Amino acid sequence: SNAKLASGVAPVPAMRRAGIRVGLGTDSTVSNNSLDIFQEMKASVLLQRAVTRDAHSATAADAFAMATREGASVLGWDDAIGTLVTGKQADLVILDLDHPLGSTARRVLSDLVYRVGPQHVREVLVAGRTIYADGQFTRIDAAAMQAHIKHHYQNHTTR
How far is Cα 89 from Cα 11, in angstroms, rounded to an integer? Predict the structure, then answer.
């Protein structure tokens, strides 16, 4: 949202070094139309590197941590979400990470931040329940929901 609203770039590496907890999210459709956490992870690293002119100022691991466990910590929910451990909510995104160079631990993390997007999502589980699989939502009628939203905004927008 800072980039879209021309509010500058937060000094995230300095903030984290100072012990400030930093989470990464998508804000809302008011200041970020895509709601794409993959895009946000990539932008967070590239912006920091561009501003600091230091290729080590932000890494794929930093972005992934801020989007998961550190984001949960910022919200005060790290006892319930942010990592896949027994006793926490089991939110999980299953991705297709087929890559022509093969997969290694380093390549997977790099691909998660620099290459992956919504088109790679194969399944989503929230609190252990599948809500999206094989390109379809499993718990809502997406077409009916889209029609309802379109109707609402056609009849309630200021002109």
Answer: 31
